[in-house]
Amino acid sequence: MTVKKKIVVLLKGYPRLSETFIAQELLGLEKAGLELELVSMRRPTDKKRHPVHDEIRANVTYLPEYLHEEPLRVLKALWACRVKPGFSKALRRLAHDLRHDFSRNRFRRFGQAAVLAHEWPTDAGWLHVHFIHTPASVAAYTHLMTGTPWTISAHAKDIWTSGDQDLSSKLDSARWAVTCTASGFRHLQSLSADKSKVHLSYHGLDLTRFPHFEGQRTPRDGSDLNEPVRILSVGRAVKKKGIDILLRALAALPTSLHWHFTHIGGGDELATLKALAAELGLSERIVWTGAMDQKQVLDHYRQADLFALACRITSDGDRDGLPNVLVEAASQNLACISTNISGIPEFFINGENGLLTAPEDATAFSQALQSAISDPELRSRLGAAAENRVRTSFDHRNSITELKALFEQEWEKPL
Prior knowledge:
This protein is of the alpha/beta class. It has helices at about 20-30, 50-55, 70-80, 85-100, 105-120, 135-145, 155-160, 165-175, 180-190, 245-250, 270-280, 295-305, 325-330, 360-375, 375-395, 395-410; strands at about 5-10, 35-40, 60, 125-130, 150-155, 175-180, 200, 230-235, 260-265, 285-290, 305-310, 335-340, 355.
């Protein structure tokens, strides 16, 4: 018989508007009967929150984001942890890691791990971490200090911006890892001594929050100044989203085509992107809304005619996996244009249920935009096929079932 264990879920930040897929998973696990305790390495910075965050019952505690902000808490934890049987192992691991990464960040992760180990809930018996880069470093040190078994959910940036040696070490230490794209799955499998430890599970959507759109979209074709085709993009203003490429693609469209572009999301590059839009002469045709909650975003999906996201791989390897916003947009019968990187071609087939171009190619992206803007029948066909893909293969209940089974299989094994 499987013995239930409270799971401590370690998160980089919580709650975050850009990580609805994590909140959706947490709520799904709770509804599936698992008991969770959330620990975050950072306090929230978003001014808004999604409704799903208010439905999650788990208690949330916060580690010191910077050790100097709570020195007594950190010192108390280190002093208490020094007598734990695994503390010397954790110190040796820290020394090994410092040879490859001698940084304040590495000491910070060790201090956060000590706080987590010292303040560990007495009724918890498992540690699960989202992201295999810095959060998994904290989890790995905590595991060594306490002996608590741990597991990993890896996503995108965390995989591709981490060194192979670091990834291999964490995969060997953890009981298993799950990731959400086939490209990430193959990469992690190649680095794991035990390939059976790595599992593929697509996030999917909570389709109760994204029901079928019963409305009808007007067959705009860009020929009428008073009925511009409404283009939408959702995502933080960061390099990997390729918003600059999208702006250049819009600027390259024929002047005879009439369109309006809305961007939803915050981010450090908003000012730079607004300046680029002004330089390209696009400002009067663009609305930058800033961050919005899930219900507001859903309304915009339903008002739009076309969704566009020009994802790229940045110079440091950062990239998206399969952006949830693409799946959300597709669930609303909305035609999508994106690029053929990471997990995006695992959902979209060019010309069948979306349009895909090579990354960094503003000319090709502009040509795809032109085709979709001027052809409402194409948009309708692509949107219907994409929605069918969501509703038949991307229901988040499948991933919750898979994840719950992974936990329960491990709980049947001896520690």
